[in-house]
Amino acid sequence: MAPSAIEAVLDRMHAVLGGYYAGAATREDLAAVLAPDVVWHVPGANAIAGDYHGVDEVIDYFTRRRDLAAGTFRMTPRETLTGHGEHVGVLTDGIATIGGTERRWSTLGFYRIGGNRIAECWLLPLDPAAFDEAWAFVDGSR
Asked: pTM of the prediction?
C-alpha cells in the first residue's frame, strides 16, 4: 500500500474517532473504518488497559475513553512514519479532563492497515507512568 493511501486511512480514522469523542459520529461510522477482526492493544495498569478483539469490543473501548473523559478527550495527530508495507506509526498527543483534572500525554500508535481499514493497533505511551495516571481507575472499575 502506498504511503499516501495509508495516510488517508489514518486521517479518516482520526477524523471519525475525534467526531465520536465529541459526540458527532456514531458506532456505525467507527465500524466503517475498522476491519471486522480488528485488535487494539492498550498497555499499562489503568482503567482502559487491555486487548480488545473485534469491532464491538474496540468501539466499547473507545466509548469507555469518551465516558471517562466526559466528552473532553481530544487527539492531535503529529508525525506519521510510513513505509511501503501495511504498518505505520503515528505520534499523537492526547488531552482530556479525567476525574476533574486536565491530563496530557503522547503516544505512538503503531497500526496495521488491511483492506483500507484499521486492522490492528498497538498503543505505545511515550511516558507510561503519565499515561497510567491520566487513565487511572477513576470510577473504581475497568
From this structure: 0.91
The Cα–Cα gap between 77 and 117 comes to 18
The pLDDT tens digits of the residues spanning 12-70 come to 999 999 999 999 999 999 999 999 999 999 999 999 999 999 999 999 999 999 999 99
Using CA atoms, how far apart are residues 135 and 45, in angstroms rounded to an integer?
A: 9
- Tell me the CB-side half-sphere exposure of residue 119, using CA atoms within 13 A: 9
Sheet with 101-114, edge to edge strand ranges: 50-53, 34-42, 117-125, 101-114, 87-98, 74-82
